[in-house]
UniProtKB/TrEMBL annotation:
<feature type="domain" description="HTH cro/C1-type">
    <location>
        <begin position="8"/>
        <end position="63"/>
    </location>
</feature>
<dbReference type="Pfam" id="PF13560">
    <property type="entry name" value="HTH_31"/>
</dbReference>
<dbReference type="InterPro" id="IPR036286">
    <property type="entry name" value="LexA/Signal_pep-like_sf"/>
</dbReference>
<protein>
    <submittedName>
        <fullName>Peptidase S24</fullName>
    </submittedName>
</protein>
<dbReference type="InterPro" id="IPR015927">
    <property type="entry name" value="Peptidase_S24_S26A/B/C"/>
</dbReference>
<dbReference type="InterPro" id="IPR010982">
    <property type="entry name" value="Lambda_DNA-bd_dom_sf"/>
</dbReference>
<feature type="region of interest" description="Disordered">
    <location>
        <begin position="73"/>
        <end position="92"/>
    </location>
</feature>
<dbReference type="Pfam" id="PF00717">
    <property type="entry name" value="Peptidase_S24"/>
</dbReference>
<dbReference type="InterPro" id="IPR001387">
    <property type="entry name" value="Cro/C1-type_HTH"/>
</dbReference>
<dbReference type="GO" id="GO:0003677">
    <property type="term" value="F:DNA binding"/>
</dbReference>
Length: 220
């Protein structure tokens, strides 16, 4: 069992779940997927680490790559340095603004926190040229992964959203044709009409490609 899987098992036991099956059932996870994550057969992604950490009451950065203490508050590591923001996926390879979330197999990437960033800060790497005018190929797009519903001040802004289908997109948020529905305008591409959203998040910073290349940190 690798260290990441061992920390997951440790967190599950500390949370009072005697078996992996019991934890999966309590939180609505697929039993086989969770078991494979815990026994090390399928390394889990940063996004899934966030879900597991929230369920078990530990810090996601500790669970994912052993940064800092297992529990505690604040965005500083044990060395007093700010924890970096994980790069959770790619965006811009197609004109639809779809985010391809990072899987568990590739080495993780991290970037320094943007101004005003918190421990919930995450980043996306721009791939290709379909987002030209907003962010060029190789740029970093930061947002706070707070998973809250769209707010009125997001209307007319380019934001990160998750649809009720599970798709994560970077789109301009517009009012839809019915309450609780939104139109999603692409930087380049067709507009999606009357979408239902799980959450939306403001973009907090965009780092140009030349600077992104300097600041990216490769994980293990």
């Amino acid at each position: 069992m690798d260290d990441r899987a061992a920390r997951l098992r440790q967190a599950r036991l500390a949370a009072g779940f005697e078996t992996a099956a019991a934890a999966a059932e309590a939180h609505g996870w697929n039993r086989n997927t969770y078991a494979s994550n815990e026994n090390g057969n399928a390394p889990y992604s940063w996004r899934r680490a966030r879900d597991y950490a929230s369920a078990f009451g530990v810090r996601p950065d500790w669970l994912y790559d052993a940064q800092g203490a297992a529990v505690g508050a604040g965005a500083a590591s044990d060395t007093g340095q700010p924890r970096p923001a994980p790069v959770i996926g790619r965006v811009g390879a197609d004109p639809g603004g779809e985010v391809l979330l990072a899987g568990g197999q590739a080495p993780p990437e991290f970037a320094p926190l943007p101004p005003g960033g918190t421990e919930r800060a995450v980043a996306l790497r721009v791939t290709g040229h379909s987002m030209r005018g907003l962010a060029d190929d190789g740029a970093l797009i930061y947002f706070e992964d707070q998973r809250t519903p769209p707010s009125p001040d997001m209307l007319g802004q380019v934001v990160v959203v998750e649809l009720d289908t599970g798709e994560v997109l970077v789109k301009r948020l517009l009012r839809g044709g019915a309450p609780g529905r939104f139109d999603l305008e692409s930087v380049a591409g067709p507009t999606r009409r009357d979408a239902r959203l799980r959450w939306a998040a403001h973009i907090t910073a965009i780092v140009p490609p030349w600077q992104a290349r300097r600041i990216l940190i490769q994980g293990d």
